[in-house]
């Protein structure tokens, strides 16, 4: 087939362009491969189970994005980094790791408490909230709350009070204790209820990063609004699972 000068010139230009693109892409591919190779095995950031703005107007989209993509992601990264030289611990379920916290080497123990607790606490927290939720529970959970606290209103007051009285950063929790009874507790920083034999069913995060963009220093307003997003179905699932264990 005869190829005229214009076609030859066109093909030459195309060939040069293709080589230029390949030269540009190759380092990017190599960089991505190197980055993946350098990523330690172990714990991963779970996907948020709803959109950032799904809990509005009670929790704003910017807070949810920063809380999940920055704070929770940092706990995961720090946990992986701390255990990079302890592959047997990287293989553990994070809850089991916290339950067995006294077996963790002293040099990384506090880092695991801070970041492993942050990872587990938040993984639960995202599921403890949901769009179009709130109100009061029903079924076995409602009966258990009534039995333990006298009424849902008394329980709600008690958990809110624990959240308000937590000095500084931390959490307020509804837990199932070692005796299989419901109890309200409060933990500092990212300490996990699992470390003390408690099984968390519902938790309020009262670190300032959970509410400060919308509510500033008004923790009481945040706590009051938070009840509108409680995912009682998930709480019921946790309760049922704990009772069977």
Describe this structure in words.
The protein has 245 residues and is mostly helical. The protein has one domain: Iron/manganese superoxide dismutase, C-terminal domain (minor pseudopilin epsh fold), CATH 3.55.40.20. It has ten helices and three strands. Strands 2-1-3 form a three-stranded antiparallel beta sheet. Helix 2 (61-82) packs antiparallel against helix 5 (106-128). It starts with a helix and ends with a helix. Residues 1-40 have low confidence and may be disordered.
* Helical content band: 55-70%
**Biggest sheet character:** 3 strands, antiparallel
User: Helix and strand string, N-terminal first?
Assistant: HHHHHHHEEEHHH
CATH architecture: 3-Layer(bab) Sandwich
Descriptors for this entry?
single chain; 245 residues; mainly alpha; minor pseudopilin epsh fold; three-stranded antiparallel sheet; 10 helices; 57% helix; 9% strand; globular
Question: Short description, anyone?
Answer:
The chain has 245 residues and is mostly helical.
Break the fold down into its secondary structure elements and pairings.
Layout: H1 5-38, H2 61-82, H3 87-90, H4 94-99, H5 106-128, H6 139-149, H7 152-165, E1 170-176, E2 182-188, E3 199-205, H8 212-215, H9 219-226, H10 232-244
Antiparallel strand pairs: 1-2, 1-3
Helix pairs in contact: 2-5
